[in-house]
């Protein structure tokens, strides 16, 4: 596989597609960084991964999970305290439909 090389014009196009503004005098540096990234990707392509199971995380840990219980949140008073008008435990709004 031949290594891919990004020049100044390609870096300008990538910046445009990514919707980022890169000053003209920094396009050469951006091209160099992109070439470095492609070099790392080529190194990864050389790694033999035959027989390696895909992973979702580098550590085999499960996240702590809360029980899935439906509640009202027990914060009705706090929420209604912010309402300009609340009656009988609900928000009160002006009537808009006759």
Automatic annotation (TrEMBL):
The keyword Protein biosynthesis applies. One of its GO terms (biological process) is glutaminyl-tRNAGln biosynthesis via transamidation. It comes from the Bacteria. Its EC number is 6.3.5.-. The keyword Glycoprotein does not apply. Heterotrimer of A, B and C subunits. This is Aspartyl/glutamyl-tRNA(Asn/Gln) amidotransferase subunit C. The gene is gatC.
């Amino acid at each position: 596989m031949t290594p891919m090389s990004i020049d100044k014009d390609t870096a300008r196009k990538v910046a445009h597609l990514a919707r980022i503004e890169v000053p003209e005098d920094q396009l050469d540096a951006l091209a160099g960084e992109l070439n470095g990234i492609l070099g790392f990707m080529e190194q990864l392509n050389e790694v033999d991964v035959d027989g390696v199971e895909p992973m979702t995380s580098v550590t085999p840990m499960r996240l702590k999970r809360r029980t899935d219980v439906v509640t009202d949140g027990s914060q009705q008073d706090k929420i209604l305290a912010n309402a300009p008008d609340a009656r009988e435990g609900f928000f009160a709004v002006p009537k808009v439909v006759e």
